[in-house]
Design brief:
Number of strands: 11
CATH class of the largest domain: Alpha Beta
CATH architecture of the largest domain: 3-Layer(aba) Sandwich
Distance between the termini: 15 Å
Radius of gyration: 19 Å
Helix content: 25-40%
CATH topology of the largest domain: Peroxisomal Thiolase, Chain A, domain 1
Length: 385
């Protein structure tokens, strides 16, 4: 078996909201049920899971003594909880399937009941040595990178605003997006929005919202007998420079993070950037979208905003990007946000995105993390050949 013999067969997303009445465990389970139903499978078909551990140990989802096998009602052959979301979880699941550790794996997660009170989301201020004492938060880390870039390429600021407006306007027309009906926005609206941390305004930055997301992964052989056309893993790559949000990011180290991962993923798939039909980039802020175009090989350094504007990243453009409205407008659910990128990529490739479907989408790029996080991952998904 090879990487392309692994397929995503089911996806599920709970309602995405600013604040949920449920807790993180409940929305993760709700998303899991939706993904299994989408695949036409039962919980009894699962023998593996990638998720934050519900009880003591691992990457704890919520305090308690619950465990996934008890809640699912099935014994599990494989559990992945080192980075159990998005592309890393998909790569781990593929490895488990290819080595015979499991046959059908659930990836699920999200957050609920953790936001509110007018405070910065707790996960944006981890208790690290140079974060907690000085009040740094995620957007400030990214602002350090953005300030350095704009010192070199000041013309990029207008392009950042155009990118933010484009993605937010996609979300404003998506009934499932948190920001549905908010908009349309112009670049001038973005620039004039309340400042958060220089150079970012409120409309340059992603949401903090609540909900769950899940995908089901199995072999291509089994996938061919299930409900939807299988979406296979064509290639994937990851880079880890250092632990996120401990040391401030240095522009010279992090601006191109993702370049090596992209070369690996495209090499595995036998494709290049020009073969990508839709890009589900990790749009934590407007400049990160432009940065990823540069790092992933779509254009050169300093050309990201111009590339986005010239190519067109809206639904009618040559490279539709964040086609559900992205983290900027659809939702950002903490640990579950990377999985949202896989869900939308799958919908586009198999043609089940409804009104937001991009005609002829056969290859989708899904990504996670970014420059100030100091790690990056991406996957290429496509139709089974």
């Amino acid at each position: 078996m090879k990487l392309q013999d692994v397929a995503i067969v089911g996806v599920g997303v709970t309602p995405q909201v600013k604040r949920s009445e449920k807790n993180s465990l409940q929305v993760a389970l709700d998303a899991a049920k939706l993904a299994l139903a989408d695949a036409g499978l039962s919980h009894t078909d699962l023998d593996g899971i990638a998720a934050r551990w519900p009880g003591p140990g691992g990457t704890e989802l919520a305090p308690g003594s619950a465990d996934w096998s008890t809640m699912l009602g099935v014994p599990l052959s494989w559990i992945g909880d080192s980075y159990p979301q998005g592309i890393p979880a998909l790569v781990d699941a593929a490895g488990a399937i290819l080595t015979g550790q499991a046959t059908t794996i659930l990836i699920t997660g999200g957050q609920a009941g953790v936001l509110g009170g007018g405070k910065v989301a707790s996960y944006t201020r981890p208790g690290n040595e140079f974060v907690a004492p000085f009040g740094a938060f995620t957007a400030a880390h990214f602002a350090l990178v953005a300030q350095r870039h704009l010192a070199r390429f000041p013309y990029a600021r207008q392009g950042m605003a155009e990118i933010a407006a484009t993605i937010r306007n996609v979300g404003s027309t998506n009934p499932d997006a948190v920001m549905y009906g908010r908009g349309p926005y112009t670049a001038e609206d973005v620039l004039a929005a309340p400042p958060v941390v220089d150079p970012f305004t409120l409309l340059d930055l992603c949401l903090a919202s609540e909900g769950g997301a899940a995908v089901v992964v199995t072999t291509l052989e089994r996938a061919r007998d299930l409900r939807h056309p299988p979406v296979v893993l064509l290639g994937a790559g990851m880079e880890w420079l250092r632990q996120q949000y401990v040391d401030p990011a240095r522009y010279e180290e992090v601006w191109s993070i993702g370049a090596k991962a992209a070369r690996k993923a495209f090499g595995q798939a036998g494709l290049g950037p020009s073969d990508v039909d839709v890009a589900q980039l990790y749009d934590v802020n407007s400049l990160e979208v432009a940065r990823q175009f540069e790092a992933l090989g779509f254009c050169g350094e300093g050309e990201g905003t111009d590339f986005a504007l010239a190519t067109g990243i809206g639904p009618d453009g040559k490279l539709p990007t964040c086609t559900d409205g992205g983290l900027l407008s659809f939702s950002h659910i903490g640990w579950g946000a990377p999985t949202l990128k896989l869900v939308e990529a799958v919908h586009q490739v198999r043609g089940t995105a409804g009104a937001r479907q991009i005609p002829g989408a056969e290859v989708a790029l899904a990504a996670g993390a970014g420059s100030a996080a100091q790690y990056y991952n991406l996957a290429l998904l496509g139709r089974a050949r």
